[in-house]
Every structure is written in C-alpha cells, then in structure tokens.
Design brief:
homodimer; mainly alpha; Tetracycline Repressor, domain 2; 9 helices; Tet_transcr_reg_TetR-rel_C_sf (chains A, B); DNA-binding (chains A, B); HTH-type_TetR-like_transc_reg (chains A, B); Homeodomain-like_sf (chains A, B)
C-alpha cells in the first residue's frame, strides 16, 4: 500500500478478505489504471492467491463494481439521511454540501478510481451505478426546488444548478491531496457557503 | 476514430502527421487508458508505422506531454487574453468562466485524457504542466482579489474561491457529453452567472 486508505472504507463488506481485495484493487487501479491491472496484481497486493480472489469476485470488473456501487450507494444514503434530518432546504443544502465535500476529500483515492473507471464497468453494472447517481442528483434538484419555492433560493435553471453543486463536490477528489491546506471538514464548510450563495441565498 | 474530435485541436502543431498521432493517442488513451495503450496502437490508429511515430515523438509519454502541454498552454493564454481585454474584474471573470466552461465542454474528450493521465507524465514534464496550472490559478486569484478590492466581490477565502471557479469548469469535461442539453456556449453563460454569485457579486 503506497497511499493511506481510511479505515472506515466499506465497513459493510464481509468477509475481511473481500474488503482487503477491494482496498488492494483501489491501490492498483489508482497507480496503473484499471485496464493495465490484472486480477493477479490485485490478489498479490492483498497477500492472496489469484484463486482466492475468485472465491469473492468472479472477475476484475466485479471488484471495480463492488467499489463503485458501495461508494455511490453510501453517497445516496448520506444525501437521503441529510434531507430526512433537515426540513429546511437551506439547512439541508448546507449540511449536504459539507458532508459531500468532506467525503470526497477524505476518500479522494477511492473516489478518483470510481470516477475515472466508470466507463470500464460492464453495461449492466454501469446502469446500476448510473441509477444511483440519478437518484442522488434528483434529490439535490428537489432540495433546490423546495428552496426556490420557499423563496430562499433563486436559480435560473435547477438542473444546471444541481449539476454544479454535485460537480464542485465530486471534483474535490481530483485535486485534493493530504497536503492540501483546508482540512476536509473546513473545506466542506467553505464550499457550503459558496454553494448557498450560488443558489441565490443571502443570509 | 470512435468519438468526434473538434477540427481546431492543435492548430499550432506541425506537421500534420504529429497532429494525427496526437488525435489517435487521445482516442486510444480515452478508450483504454494510457498504461494499456502502446505506441503501436497509436501509430496504427493514425494509419502509420511505429517507426513513423518515433520520428515525431521519442516515447509514448512524449505524445501525452504534447497533448497535455498544448491544452494547458492554450488555457493559460485564453485566461491571459481575457484579463487583458477586460479591465473590470466582473467582466473579466464572466468572460473567463464563459470561455473556460465552453472550452471544457467542447473539448471534453481531450480534457478528460489530460486530467486523468496527469500522474502518468514523467517528473520533468509533470512540472511543466503543474507550472502552467499554477500560473492560470494565480491569474484567477488576481481577478478575484481585484474584485474584492473594488467591492464587487466578497469572498471569505480567495484561494478556495479560485479553486472552486476552476474546479467547476474542469469538471465539465467529466460529465459533459454531446447529448447534454445545454450547448457549450449556453452552459458557459449559466456557469458564469453561478460563479459571479458565488463570489458575492450582486448585479
């Protein structure tokens, strides 16, 4: 492992061996790209035999899918929870951006792999991920629409605004490095303020 | 060629064969990744022999560098020209975002390759590109600072604001597709309005 991976990645994945393989795959995909990585590379990096990998994943693409689905499902769950916690659209949007941005900063290595290798997913798996993304984007649009209806937000185009909100957060994974000055939490708060202004909110 | 490439890519590159090789490399890198692409793949896609490739580029990394340097140098020149054309920081920022966003939408295939494969550049070439990015980011910070001094902008943190402005534009290359509804020009105008609000500008 050349880069640190947060310990709380995939707490839902069992057994440990499957999680170790996913972590090893993230490292390999991040350093040499998905296409140039073999299942043997992943197994070796996880300290296992290629045969042991196939016990958990039928193919290299299944490891990529597990990583990608987990990331997208947890993002969607975070957005759903945030909306459930905050009835006020301004509070919901602020907390959503704080969490979304901090998440992409903390998990930038995984998030980068997930973004870069999306096109490498087989068609059916790709659709599952696209569906999770659509649901997330649709929830963000709903918060913006509610805010516009309540008069808190003024947006010329809800779709473009929702895209910009998510885009700002996702792109954090591209440029963020552990050496970056603002911590994930501070960056999340700064971005939440920028997003609220972008949506025409004046405190 | 499976994806369309704008005809005006690399108008500065001579001879034609070098430009054809760069276009073929973009296609190959975009579809299978830099690491899994060979110089033979690139030459074949350009309808040339591997030996003919070496006449123009000493290595695969030299093709990637030519693509990446050209994209970054033209972006920097665009930002410099925009600032030279507009003394008012609000006008400068609006035009800058319009052009930056439209550029990343129009040239999303190339821009995506350039972003994804940045880490694949050899150390010295990487530094050249990082230097071009730093100069671009520094110019954006200067416009924001001038706007803050004139009272047109209010930003809590100039560095984070500049990063957000560029991040929004760069990430367009990730999600934009020719099927996307807003045209590059319209998207540029929408994003320019969002950015001006983000910087605390009220018209």
């Amino acid at each position: 492992m050349t880069r640190p991976l947060p310990e709380d990645l995939w707490p839902d994945v069992r057994p440990d061996a499957a999680r170790r393989l996913m972590a090893a795959a993230v490292e390999s995909f991040a350093s040499r790209g998905y296409h140039a990585t073999t299942t043997r590379d992943i197994a070796t990096a996880a300290g296992m035999s290629p045969a042991a990998l196939y016990v958990h994943f039928p193919a290299k693409s299944a490891v990529l899918f597990a990583i990608s689905r987990s990331g997208h499902a947890r993002t969607l769950a975070m957005v759903e929870n945030t909306i459930a916690e905050h009835a006020d659209p301004v509070d919901a949007m602020r907390t959503l951006v704080e969490r979304f941005v901090a998440w992409h900063a903390q998990r930038h290595v995984v998030a980068r792999v997930v973004q870069h290798e999306l096109d490498a997913l087989p068609a059916q798996e790709y659709q599952v991920v696209v569906d999770l993304r659509r649901r997330t984007e649709s929830l963000v649009r709903e918060v913006i629409t509610r805010g516009a209806e309540s008069g808190a937000f003024t947006v010329p185009d809800v779709r473009t605004a929702a895209r910009a909100v998510l885009s700002l957060g996702i792109d954090v994974a591209r440029w963020y490095s552990p050496a970056s000055k603002p911590s994930p939490t501070v960056l999340g708060k700064q971005y939440a303020e920028l997003v609220l202004r972008m949506l025409g909110y004046t405190s």
